[in-house]
Every structure is written in C-alpha cells, then in structure tokens.
Design a protein that fits this description.
Helix content: 25-40%
Order of helices and strands: EHHHHHEHEEEEHEHEEH
Structural class: alpha/beta
Bound molecules: 2'-O-acetyl adenosine-5-diphosphoribose
Number of helices: 9
Shape: globular
Strand content: 15-25%
Distance between the termini: 11 Å
Radius of gyration: 18 Å
Number of strands: 9
Largest sheet: 6 strands, parallel
Strand order of the largest sheet: 3-2-1-7-8-9
Length: about 230
C-alpha cells in the first residue's frame, strides 16, 4: 500500500468544540448554513455573512485545540511509508495545528481573506467588515472570507481527483456525505480499487458506498485505526 487519502468533515473538529453544520444546534441564529454561506447571501447582506464568519474565526482563535483524531492523522503522515493526503472540507486550521502538512482545504480557510477586486489572498486573524481594506490594492469593502460558498467551485479539485485515482486506501472521517463533490469521492476511489473506510457517529446514508463503516467518535477510533495501518505497514 502506497497512497492514502483521508477526507475529513465537520465531525473531526466536533470533539474540539466546533459545532457541525447539520447536527443538533447546527443552525446559526436560526439560519441554515446554506442561507449564510452563499454568494447571494453575501451580495444581499455582507454584514451578516461577515458576522457569521467573524464569530467562527473568533471562536477558532480563542482556545480551540486539535483533538486526538487530528493528531492521529499527523502521525499517519509522519510514520507511513508512502503518501498521505488529507483533503478537508473544514475551514479551521486544526489539521495543521495537529501536525499534518499535506493538507488540501477544498472549502477554503477561515484564517484567510480574499479580495474580490484584485484576488489577493491574505492571512486574516481579525474581523472583516464592509469597511475592511485590501492590504494589496487598498480597495475598501472588497475582502471576503477565503471560503467556498454553496454554488462556488471547491478548490484544487484536479489535484484531489488525481490523488483519489491513485489511492490504495480512502478514509472518510466525520462527514455527512450530503455535499458534493466531496460526497462522491468514495465512488471515485472505489472505482479505482481503493479500500474504503468510513468513521462516523452514525449511519450516513443509504449505505453501501464504503466497504467498512466504523461507528463512534473520531477521536477514539482514528488513533487505533492509524496504529493498525502503521503496524501492517511496518
Ligand atoms: P456535517 O455537519 O454535514 O456532518 C458532520 C458529520 O460528522 C455527521 O455525519 C456526524 O454524524 C459526524 N460526527 C459528528 N461528531 C463526530 C465525531 N465526534 N466523530 C465522528 N463523526 C462525527 O459536516 P460536513 O459533512 O463536513 O460546506 O459538511 C460538508 C460541508 O457542508 C461543509 O464543508 C460546509 C457545509 O455546509 C460549505 O460551507 C461549502
């Protein structure tokens, strides 16, 4: 076995204290995430959308830490004798803080902003408002969260597809499988002969997409799974 791709979703960060999107309490002040995370919502009420991401950013910077699931994936990358790629739908930086280096944020990053005028992507650890200024072109009101909204195209898809086609093992952790294209990755990996494993608290759909399902908390299951992959690899 040479190539491992791990797809992660909100469930892997749940044990760090970040709410998932679709779980109980997965609404933000009565808004479904689909209502704040769209270009239309931003055009209609940029202040509201900024506020949504400002709160998430403040929360991420105020004491949220990676959990044993993030740390286990970093260990896998470090110790596995082959390629390990983490493709995350999460916009937090917990994989990096847990020690992973080969990470693709297909839905963007909360700690970055992007200027809608000049395209500059900048580090962003502060609140954004309609009065924020682009650090490069100095336009006012143009920086937006560097995140992918519903109706926008996820980042680095060609690279992800190449990795899925080459994968011997595909693991999905803490994702509901409701949002495409990520939800279709298992089929692509499987069509190219990867073994497929899912880790989730609950059943994620009609079933059958994954060869193996492990039910439970990512922070408990993943360290053991990584241990057994490394033991087999040794
Ligand atoms: P969801 O909130 O849809 O799903 C989270 C999944 O994690 C659920 O299936 C839970 O059962 C599972 N889960 C929760 N806690 C867990 C734990 N401790 N261990 C294991 N599993 C656990 O989140 P995503 O699938 O990531 O997109 O959502 C996908 C995308 O939809 C997000 O990236 C975001 C969202 O709207 C955009 O904003 C574009």
């Amino acid at each position: 076995m040479r190539n491992i791709v791990v797809l992660t979703g909100a469930g892997i960060s749940a044990e760090s204290g970040i709410e998932t999107f679709r779980g109980a309490g997965g609404l933000w002040e009565g808004h479904a995430v689909e209502d704040v995370a769209t270009p239309e919502a931003f055009a209609r009420d940029p202040g509201l959308v900024h506020q949504f991401y400002n709160l998430r950013r403040q929360q991420l910077l105020a004491g949220i830490e990676p959990n044993p699931a993030h740390v286990a994936l970093a260990r896998l990358e470090r110790e596995f004798d082959g390629e390990v790629l983490v493709v995350t739908q999460n916009i937090d930086d917990l994989h990096e803080r847990g020690g992973s280096e080969n990470v693709i944020h297909m839905h963007g990053e909360l700690l970055k902003s992007r200027c809608v005028s000049c395209g500059e992507v900048s580090e962003c650890r502060h609140d954004l408002t309609v009065a924020s200024e682009c650090p490069r072109c100095h336009a006012v009101g143009t920086p937006r969260p560097h995140v992918v909204w519903f109706g926008e195209i996820p980042l680095r898809l060609p690279e992800i597809e190449r990795a899925l086609i080459a994968a011997d093992l595909f693991i999905a952790v803490g994702t509901s499988g409701r949002v495409y294209p990520a939800a279709g990755f298992v089929r692509l990996a499987r069509a190219h002969e990867a073994r497929t494993i899912e880790i989730n608290l609950e059943e994620t759909g009609p079933g059958g997409a994954f060869q193996e399902s492990r039910r439970g908390r990512a922070g408990e299951i993943l360290p053991d799974l990584v241990g057994s992959i490394l033991a087999r690899d040794a």
